[in-house]
From TrEMBL, chain A:
It comes from Companilactobacillus bobalius DSM 19674. It holds the Pfam family BPD_transp_1. This is ABC transporter permease. GO terms for cellular component: plasma membrane. Gene3D superfamilies: MetI-like. The keyword Metal-binding does not apply. The chain crosses the membrane at residues 21-43, 75-95, 115-131, 137-156, 200-221, 233-251. Belongs to the binding-protein-dependent transport system permease family.
From TrEMBL, chain B:
It comes from Companilactobacillus bobalius DSM 19674. InterPro entries: AAA+_ATPase, ABC_SmlMolc_Importer, ABC_transporter-like_ATP-bd, ABC_transporter-like_CS, P-loop_NTPase. SUPFAM superfamilies: P-loop containing nucleoside triphosphate hydrolases. Residues 7-226 form the ABC transporter domain. It holds the Pfam family ABC_tran. The keyword tRNA processing does not apply. One of its GO terms (molecular function) is ATP hydrolysis activity. The keyword Transmembrane helix does not apply. This is ABC-type nitrate sulfonate bicarbonate transport system, ATPase component. Keywords: ATP-binding, Nucleotide-binding, Transport.
Length: 269, 241
């Protein structure tokens, strides 16, 4: 019995790293294939520079301070835009989810604005705000507002009415009702909205920085394109991919932290 | 209010637009009494319970609870456990309580429902019977004087149901709770209640007082009589034939 338990534990130890490494397998194979293709001359460096050349370019730009400077400004725009847009989306979703009067007053108009592609507003925003920080932050805020709004609104308005009735029968105050029942019940949906908004945030920022900026990763890529600097163009794309992945991981960790109860099940008994 | 009376229901009517849910209901429930409301679906049992709980208001008539007519002395247990899935068992018990010694009291109640080791579990780690025990413990958290049970055992298997009946009876007797049980099961009503009220055609149609310390035979007799009143003798004869 003891032996079989030890074997089972060993097996488990062996299985765990494989499952963790599996998601990295495909990217590693692609990068290796890309590197080999570049080394053997199958790919021209003017079409697609090798991963090693892109990596070296990254080190050079980091040492010169250009990459950290542009990265930090992009991160600043993305974070501030998300905080403003997400905050407004959450507040609107909250009031419309909680109050029928507010829903009737605002929801129809918000849905109308939601259907306008926010990137179509770029010319208007440039005309109104110029090409300074507020223009890019506004675009990110508009882009991220709607996913957070829709999901907060849907999350709050679809809370199980039986739980609300239970709260009423326990004479919970309005505040208790919100913090103990409505908000936790809506949280999974709100987090879906935030995760979706993170994707929109990067897409919007790339477009905004490519069209009208004098700093940021998008500007770096656009500038590199003017000088046919393929390594930097690819580097910027890789940086965006890494930033997107990091954002997703952060969102996922929030989900596992805040929605721990969803992972439990009868098997644990 | 009549002396020793806990709940007084006077000429209560409830309408949902054109639909009459309750028609001239009059009922007096004494302190510590265990009442079972039985009847066919749509007879008005659950509506009456919801009105008593204060979840809905009667169209006309009055329901008085205790001397000060406060709903705080009542707690309700529903057919579904209605536990909050994001809270563990201990937090589910203490969330509605303002008492400083809440956690200690919650642990006492968990021991009472024989789930003392499950304080850290989440509801989705528990069986249906365990969830209903937790729901019972939660209902007892504020030391209520009235316990309202809206078919809480309807979804349980026969054995778990029997165990829960014993637990509820034991708790209600020890804590001298006034209890109103809504059930479809006349045997359950005959086994648990001091008095059975048959709801038919939206009113309290018939009452049956159950003998104290009844045996299985007496339970069967009471259940048959109540069933007779619910279905009508002709229907019973048709079913027997």
């Amino acid at each position: 019995m003891q032996d079989s338990l030890t074997i089972a534990r060993k097996k488990r130890k062996f299985v765990l790293p494989v499952t963790k490494l599996l998601p990295f397998l495909l990217p590693i194979i692609l990068i290796l294939f890309w590197q080999v293709s570049s080394t053997l001359g199958w790919l021209s460096s003017s079409v697609l520079p090798s991963p090693l050349a892109v990596f070296q370019d990254g080190i050079k730009l980091t040492q010169s301070g250009e990459l950290p400077k542009n990265l930090s400004i992009s991160l600043y725009r993305a974070t501030v835009g998300l905080l403003i847009g997400g905050g407004v989306g959450f507040i609107l979703g909250f009031i419309n989810g909680m109050s029928k009067t507010c829903r009737l007053l605002f929801d129809s108009s918000i849905q109308m604005f939601r259907n306008i592609p926010h990137l179509a507003l770029i010319p208007l925003i440039i005309l109104w705000l110029g090409i300074n920080e507020s223009a890019k932050i506004s675009l990110v805020a508009i882009g991220t507002m709607f996913p957070v709004y829709i999901n907060t609104f849907h999350g709050i308005s679809s809370v199980d009415p039986d739980l609300i009735e239970m709260g009423k029968s326990y004479e919970l105050s309005k505040g208790q009702m919100f913090f103990k029942i409505i908000f936790p019940a809506a949280l999974p949906q709100i987090l879906v909205g935030i995760r979706y908004a993170l994707g929109v945030m990067w897409t919007t920022l790339i477009v905004a920085e490519t069209i009208s900026a004098s700093s940021g990763i998008g500007y770096m890529a656009n500038n590199a394109e003017d000088f046919m600097d393929m390594e930097t163009v690819i580097l910027c794309i890789v940086v965006y991919a890494v930033l997107g992945k990091i954002s997703d991981l952060v969102a996922k960790s929030f989900e596992s932290l805040l929605l721990e109860w969803q992972k439990t099940g009868r098997s644990n008994v | 209010m009549i002396k020793n009376s806990m709940i007084e229901i006077k000429n209560v009517n409830k309408m949902y637009q054109d639909l009459t849910a309750l028609k001239n209901v009059n009922l007096n429930i004494n302190q510590g009494e265990f009442i079972a409301l039985v009847g066919m679906s749509g007879g008005g049992k659950s509506t009456l319970l919801r009105l008593i709980a204060g979840l809905e208001k009667p169209t006309s008539g009055s329901i008085t609870v205790g001397e000060d007519n406060s709903r705080s002395v009542m707690r309700m247990m529903f057919q579904e456990d209605r536990l909050l899935p994001w809270m563990n068992v201990l937090d589910n018990l203490s969330f509605g309580s303002k008492d400083k010694n809440t956690k200690a009291h919650a642990k006492e109640l968990l021991n009472l429902v024989e789930l003392g080791d499950y304080a850290d579990h989440f509801p989705n780690q528990l069986s249906g019977g365990q969830k209903q025990r937790i729901a019972l413990a939660r209902a007892l958290m504020t030391n209520p004087k009235v316990l309202l049970l809206d078919e809480p055992l309807g979804a349980l298997d026969a054995l778990t149901r029997r165990k829960m009946q014993d637990l509820i009876l034991d708790v209600c007797q020890k804590q001298h709770l006034t209890t109103i049980l809504v059930t479809h099961d006349v045997d359950e009503a005959a086994r648990m209640a001091d008095r059975i009220v048959v709801m038919k055609e939206s009113t309290n149609y018939y009452e049956e007082t159950c003998p104290k310390n009844r045996n299985a035979g007496q339970i069967g007799i009471v259940a048959d009589r109540v069933l007779n009143e619910i279905l009508g003798e002709k229907e019973i004869q048709k079913q027997t034939a």
